[in-house]
Specification:
Strand content of chain A: under 5%
Oligomer: homodimer
Order of helices and strands of chain A: HHHHHHHHHHHHHHHHHH
């Protein structure tokens, strides 16, 4: 077993090399005419500027946290693991964004050169760079830190937990900051461009249009990547932390590492299979690629579990997680593109209030099935393997993150490709291909969002279980988080309020940041002569700068609050209250996250369905009402909703990392 | 002590007589000219028809539950108590409604005869009938059943709990059915009348206008009365159930009974003091009347506690509850009429999406302070008196329900008085007086809604504590509801989803029911010649009938679901999972309830603020956007939001009543 464990980080490095090779294959592809190149370059630079600015703020933030960790935990290696987790996440985000902002224009060109199959192939390969980076760097980091600490497996988690917290810190900024950026740019440029100036979407005369396209990358690619990386790493870390308190310690701690290594290989094979599958229609191609990875993982996971553990108990937990992940994706797809969308569209005939009420009711109802799915997965995995099983189920859900993330990142690349086609004046034939890919991207995005919140829920539960086990071990007796104690109930209430407060803060942040952009775009239309006529250039850099600064400024308060709250409750009211706090935050955060993502997606698609000519089509009153719903849905689905994923995981991981100190403080 | 306990039901009866005398004093007042009388009669009949239809359905429902109770609990007296609780609530609702629908027209007349002070006096007296009925019938019922069972105090709760469940059953139908009625009538008649036909609110040509006025009574008077009656009874029952497991059993069980008896007397004195206070401005008058009752209760509560218990520990719990209730009211008032309202109004300048996002963000944020208030009250009362303290705090919050409810019922009476003034063509002078009283009524309604959800939260927590104690007693060992168990976590998730599902169901119910009314009103405008010109009469009975049938039909599914869910979880997954379920439902229900009530109130007032001439005033784009917010807020604040109060209490009380059977089932 030792030999294999030693090989793990190298397999991870091989996965990263796979990602880099894919990247170089993508950029070898021609990037089209000068106009296309110029637009793509602006998006690329805008995205990179945002990342660099963001990483600067993160550097300051991480430096403070490193000092706090070193001071409180008195273990420099935890601080090192924390930094490593952060750097891995940032590296994945950076390389993935590099690829995404290079692949977009090449997808447009591919549509010209070889039609749908070629465009699909370029977009998917571009997305798979992010997918493989996320999967591979997780394997590298976790594999390495486990190798380094496994001599003393009982205390290994104290160090490895830091890696997850590092991943969480980046996810916080990437998701919240990215979410605010993407929606303020979207809302801001639409409000002035489409509504006030009356020019179409993605029109090059709109000064905010590049910021909007940058936002797609910043939010949907970098934000989503950091989110899934956090879940992925968090699930493994939780399983290891619980494993450290079990008999057969080394085996149960190695198991999740093996699963993600297998998952990485399975993902790589799935990505390679696209070379053949691209000839099918895009939807089938993406689906079968996922199936290829899934089947390979299921079979090799079975063999691995049998060889390592003898019993197959833990394997059933993995399967429970895997199936739950797929189901939650399908459930999200139903609510954001099935019959509920038509119901909302019909409600739009009675005006904007009807759309909003019908949408919110649908969103509330859409929480039922995913919650039942999560409960069933929890029950099955707990039945087979106890608390460890919950963490292993989360690992199972996330082991094939490589292919899941590839499919998901393909979406914003296609979206951008469409934008570039529009802005560069490519013909309607090209636009048709990119529209088709983009529309499929919306479906994969809905599935991806469902998967992200589902995996966040299971990961948060796993981290919560790991927190309990860690406190119990430190205290030397099982901790109970008993709801018959007033402290636990108070923790539950305060924890439950956190998602509400963070939602309020992020929604208002989008509004403020969008307003700043609106003023700038209005100013440009007013002051730059000939802009609307297309004879003068807009100052797009100015808009990118305003969106960047706004998003980064606005993310600080919710970020610090999310990070500090578990510490305040933990040190103020003790580990039991903190347990209640995490439970409350997780329940409410998951419900609110599902609700907001689904209602946002459903409003978006209701509007699109009307635009296809139903209920009077574009410019009808129903359409106007549906646009109101869509606008409200923007911060729901792309800012506040996804922020819930981060919130529940981050707070749990902070509690887990500081559990030993908090427990000792109250002994 | 025995003598005083024997006197309690008689004091309660005296309170009820006080209510009846007030009623006869109100109806002795002249009811104005023929036109006014005719309109008032229609509202009166409409309201009574609704109540009678509702009570018929409730009778069937209660009969089924009685059989279930008798079969499962094998205790006929519990069934008797259940019936009594239901009958007391219905009686309070009936008499209160009778008074409210008689006082409205007399308030209009009083405004003509004696200006503001006289109108205030009539409206307040009308409302105080409901207030005193609620307070007195609670004292009668609880006092009587305690007298009847106190020979064997340990098992007394098995019977008395039934009384609370009876109150809860009525509250469910009154709040949910009433909430659906009031909002479907409001939305339906506004949509056709104000928007399509372009006639003002409360215009007699609108066929839905009487249904709308009936709705104010049905929702805000009967619904609110049943809600507070449920909290009031639930808090006392919870305290008694916990008291039954404590030393000094008889004393700790009597204490809550004494508190509400004192509270009843204090409320009566407060109501009488209005005879002098009415000369002040209306706002001060209402406030001082509440203070009079509060101070009397605080002083006599101190004496009572000292005499009965010796120690003052429980008294501090009472004070914690009393202060928390007042604070939550003030917090609600701030969010529904303070600076947040202006922020939302300003957001309306950017269109309906801006209003909605800003409102929802405000609503989410508005949960923070009330939750902290509830947590602090819980902590203080738990510190002084353990689990019993939480229940006693709830009793303290609700002991002066007589005066609280009087102030609250005054609102819909004034609202109706304004409607009657408008419909009967009273001059602008009269309308100005009723508008002033109505506007104050909106403030007291906001405070009342905050108080209702705050008291529901504390009552649900108290019932939850009583549930634990009961299960522990039956099992013979302390039950732990430990969040480290997967079952409890699963219960927590399922419980947390319940408020989301019920909200979705009730919101859609309003939409469907309103649509039926819209079609009917449109039909009348189309088919009745001369209706719009004022030369023909609308068929108002038809609208009342549609609203009644719609509301009663729509309340069944959410009602049955709320009642069955705790039984399914309890018998399916056991008492621990049920404990988790109740905790999850309470946290999410309270958060969602506060959020929906506050955002609804804030949208309403933002619209009114613009109508006062700000930001362009009526007919500006900002106003149109604000109207959208207000329309969305209607089901939020008057249907789904208040339904949360009932949901969390009802599910807890069902769990408490069936706790002995569920516990035995899993022993």
């Amino acid at each position: 077993m030792d030999a294999i464990l030693t090989a793990v980080p190298f397999i991870g490095i091989a996965g990263f090399v796979f990602a880099l090779v894919t990247y170089f294959l993508v950029i070898r592809y021609p990037e089209g005419n000068e106009k296309m190149r110029a637009i793509a370059e602006k998006i690329h630079i805008g995205a990179m500027v945002f990342l660099k600015q963001e990483y600067k703020i993160i550097a300051v933030f991480m430096a403070i946290v490193v000092i706090a960790i070193a001071a409180l935990l008195k273990n420099p290696w935890t601080a090192v693991a924390y930094l490593s987790g952060g750097i891995c996440s940032m590296l994945a985000g950076y390389v993935g964004m590099l690829a995404a902002t290079r692949a977009n224009v090449r997808t447009t060109q591919a549509a010209k050169d070889g039609g749908t199959p070629l465009a699909l192939s370029v977009a998917f390969n571009g997305g798979s760079v992010m997918g493989m980076c996320v999967a591979a760097l997780g394997v590298v980091g976790l594999g390495f830190f486990f190798l380094f600490t496994k001599k003393d497996p009982g205390t290994a988690p104290i160090i490895i937990n830091g890696f997850a917290m590092g991943a969480s810190s980046i996810a916080l900024f990437a998701r919240v900051g990215g979410g605010i950026y993407t929606k303020s740019a979207d809302v801001g440029s639409d409000l002035v461009g489409k509504v006030e100036a009356g020019i179409p979407e993605d029109d090059p005369r709109n000064p905010g249009v590049i910021a909007d396209n940058v936002g797609d990358n910043v939010g949907d690619t970098a934000g989503m990547g950091a989110d899934l990386f956090e879940s992925y790493v968090g699930a493994v870390v939780a399983a290891m932390a619980i494993g450290a308190t079990m008999p057969d310690t080394l085996k149960v701690m190695s198991l999740p590492i093996f699963y993600i290594t297998i998952g990485l290989i399975a993902s790589a094979i799935g990505i390679l299979s696209m070379g053949i599958l691209k000839k099918l229609n895009p939807q089938s191609a993406l689906r079968y690629a996922t199936y290829v990875s899934g089947v390979i993982f299921i079979i090799s996971g079975l063999i691995c579990t049998k060889l390592l553990m003898g019993s197959l108990n833990h394997y059933w937990s993995v399967i429970a997680g895997l199936v739950a992940g797929a189901l939650i994706g399908v459930e999200s797809e139903y609510f954001t593109s099935g019959s509920p969308v038509k119901k909302i569209a019909h409600a739009s005939t009675s005006g904007p209030a009807g759309v909003v009420i019908s949408g919110i009711a649908t969103g509330f109802m859409s929480t039922l099935m995913p919650i039942i799915t999560i409960c069933v997965a929890t029950a099955i995995s707990y039945y087979f393997s106890g608390l460890y099983g919950i963490a292993i189920a989360a690992v199972g859900m996330l082991a094939t993150v490589g292919i899941v993330m590839s499919t998901d990142s393909y979406g914003p690349i296609s979206d951008n490709a469409g934008g570039i086609a529009e802005m560069s004046g490519a013909g309607p034939e090209i636009r048709k291909i990119t529209d088709k890919l983009d529309s499929l991207g919306n479906t994969t995005a809905a599935i991806g969002k469902g998967f992200a919140i589902g995996s966040a829920a299971l990961t948060a539960l796993a981290l919560f279980s790991a927190f309990q086990q860690t406190v119990s071990t430190v205290m030397g007796k099982p901790m109970s988080i008993d709801l018959t104690s007033a402290k636990v109930v108070i923790g539950l209430f305060i924890g439950g309020t956190m998602p509400f407060v963070i939602t309020a803060l992020t929604m208002e942040a989008v509004g403020r940041s969008a307003n700043r952009l609106v003023e700038e775009i209005r100013r440009q239309f007013r002051e730059i002569k000939g802009l609307l006529e297309g004879t003068a250039e807009p100052q797009i850099d100015k808009c990118v700068e305003i969106a960047t600064k706004g998003a980064l400024r606005e993310m600080i308060i919710p970020g610090v609050l999310a990070l500090m709250a578990p510490l305040i409750v933990g040190f103020g009211l003790g580990p039991k209250a903190l347990g209640g706090f995490l439970a409350g935050a997780t329940v409410v955060g998951v419900l609110l996250g599902i609700m907001m993502c689904n209602v946002g997606g459903a409003w978006d698609n209701a509007k699109k369905w009307i635009e296809e000519g139903n209920l009077g089509g574009k410019k009808s009153d129903a359409h106007k009402a549906a646009v109101v719903g869509d606008t409200i849905g923007d911060p729901f689905k792309d800012t506040s909703g996804p922020s819930m994923n981060i919130l529940i995981k981050l707070m749990s991981v902070v509690a887990l990392v500081f559990a030993p100190v908090i427990a000792k403080f109250f002994m």
